[in-house]
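Milestone M4 deliverable, item 7.
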Amino acid sequence: MHARVWKLRIRPGKIDDFHEALSSVVTLARRERGYRGVLALGTGKQDAPDVTLVAVWDSLEEIRASERNLFLMQAISRYLECCEGMPHHFEEELLATDFIATEIGASA
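Output delivered:
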């Protein structure tokens, strides 16, 4: 498995816009072959955090395929609406995972 890691800085007062952008990008990503999910981590000011997104994919080849069909460009354009500067992204290999399938905010 591989991950596309994003580094973003949310503009002050744009956290709700970020959540909307992330939701729309996840909707797009779920249509992509090999996409497994995303983890969003924030640090710093609550209303303008620095964010690390870790999107998990089955393979580097499937990450690359998402770039060819414009998924990556759509994601970047949505993040630009609420982020400072250009989002930085790179790929890494997952060496180990231990996730339990849950959804934040889901009730039992």
